Request: fold
Amino acid sequence: MIEVTIQLLGFIAAAALVVIGIAGMLFLDNLIKKIISFTLLSDGVNLLLVALGYVEGGIVPILIPGMSVSEFAARAALVFPVGIVLTNIVIGVSTTAILVALAIMLYRRYGTLKASKVLKGERR
Amino acid sequence: MSAYPSNLWSIPLLVVIPIIVAVVVNFIYNRSRLIKIISIVSAVCLALIASLSSYGYHWFTGQPALRPETLTFTFDPGFPAWRLALEFYFGPLQQVMIFVMSLILIFVVAVASSGLTKRQGPYMSMIFLLFASAAIIIMVNDLYHLWIAVEIGSLVVAGVVVGSGTSVSHKAALKYTFFSALSGAGLAIALALILGLTGYSNISDAIRYLQSVNLGEMSIILYVAFAFFVLSWIYAGGLAPIHPLKSEVYGASFPHGTAMLQTQSKLMLVAIGIVMLQIFGMLPFVREVMLAISIITMMLGVVMALIQTDFRWILAYLIVSHSGLVTVGISLGTTEGLVGGIFQAVNDVIYMTVLLLCCEALYYFGGKTSTRNSLGLAKRAPWLGMAVILGTMAASGIPPFNGFQSELILIQASLKAGLPEVAAVILMVSVTTFIALFRAVYRLFLKPPETSEPVAEVKVPRSLYIGLWVFVALTLIIGVYPNIVVSFITPVAQAVSIPWYL
Reply:
């Protein structure tokens, strides 16, 4: 029997967000909905990373005076995934900003946000 | 490796200078003359730094590696430790790649500043950020910053494409950015998996760890990480199956922008490919998968180029096809394969720059790039006509040009690995490249125009012609003396190579 832990729940939720995000990006026709799906995908990846770094009963990864190195190593939450998540949030915001800007430009030109109409035909 | 001195001041300048220039030219926005001077001087400085700098390591923030057992710093670059700072490594391979890239940057900014009248600052800013992101990917020695640089690079690619200002370019940028979201997320997951498996984000440390332990059942995690890495690799180089997306990006940009984009893309392919080879190369079927992707890319790219009726799009698909030539060598993973693949990348960016600058010149002769037009440009601009023919010969692998040398090494490497079918595909790509290119060159440059209307005098910027002939000369010099480049590549290829039959 698999034990249901916070970490496992985090993994399941992350997988769900990633699948919903990818499905939305692939199958929804509205550009704004596609962009929202991308943010869901990005959140899913962030949650996966946070769950990876989770330590049951862990402490903030700061070496407090008086704490032994072995105790710190055993209990400190993994700091690296948190660093990746922070970076991914920044990258996600930048990507979303560019996507929204491009969607606005295309909307002004074509008068629609339907990807099937905007992205079709006219190559040169 | 530990023999190299650490914290060399010159190495970070290759990243810091383009970032500072990007900020400055964006700030001064429309002062064309000042932007031109700053951009060209900075690009020349970057070329000088790349050619004169010593080899070694640099830790940004001055924070070297942390020894896990004692939590003390170590300055030994060879010591396995937590390397949390941005760590750059600059060796012969990095030198030759960054030098070629900076040479292309010089002429790209010169041509761009002559041709662009509006939004020059932001556009130039994107070009410099493109250089910075590629330089980071080439030099960085940890997966975390590799991921960040790939992400930055993909956003900047979108910026350069949008810079050409057409609705086609907006659409190409939108599609490319959507896919960057997928591949970026994939690379983040790959990074997390490798970190979880090895405990290291530093590439050298992770490789050392993986070579020292038997992963057993855990190797499945490494395969999953490989799958995500492949996604990012495909994205970086526009390999199959996303080759139409990347071709669209190339076709929708200004030709000089495409010259920089394809340089960034090919050098990223080499850098990421070598990392993949080192981390995953020992796993069964990994190199076979990489090889299959490369062969499919080569064939699809060249066939698509054959059916195009526009010079820009022919070049766009050929760039993608030739990315496959680069990755074939890296996928083989043998010393000869790696030398051939990396050498092909260097040669490819040079002769494609010749062809793209010729395409740029077409804009000054009325902007018609469709091969349905007969322009007879060779008569109006004989130097341009000669340059495009020489560029076509180099791209088709005809001796004595540089393309011939690298394709010969690749064919020899394939035969030595016992894969004559791969050698046959390389030959087929070479011949088809010639057909696709010569068809366009004949129509646009050699065939007399259908109408005999008097034509106005056209003034092509001097920088474009100078750039054109510098790169034509390079194709010839490297073709006659390949050791100029190969001597830089061989030590690295020997260090990371793996026999094809393990």
